[in-house]
Design goal:
9 helices, mainly alpha, elongated, 69% helix
Amino acid sequence: SAVAVADELRDHGLESPMIISGEKLSDRLEAESGLIARALHLIPADETAWLAPLVAQVAGQMCAGQVQEVRAAGAPLAEDEYVAIVRAKTASLFWLCGHVGARTGGGSPEVVEGLAAFAESFGVAFQFADDILDLVGTNGKSGKPQWRDLAERKFTLPLIVARGMGGRALRARLQRILSQQAIDEDDALAVRALIQDAGALQA
């Protein structure tokens, strides 16, 4: 999906080839929508005609999830709110892959439904693992810069769990750091220490 490509480029400190520096959110979404439109044109109008509307539907879910995530920057989210964003921006693409793979492979409706559900759950787990790796690091193996989520002031799952397990002082300090317009490495290390002390990574 075009949105996934653009998101992956940003994770590695790059930008979509259609996006210029100094972009606004509306500029980014417009550019990514253009990539999606190009991708849909590549789908042949034959026995897979059902695929284009499905891809468009999922692309819309992904865009909506990304918009929700950007708008929530710096704001503490409830766990169910965050999971809803994850299902939209990440897990929906996994669902699509499972659905399309099973359907084009000749699977029965039950197989298609089951594989798509499994893929969606896998997508949620994938995002949760990505959230944790952003905090603990991967020694450069993932290729994704560490602290990327914190730099974008995202209340990801480890932070949400820590807020629930910690006391008032922990919640206040997390909120103070995530409310800043710029988060440096010292702030990121402080957040990681708070999360570890709360036991959120082991929860």
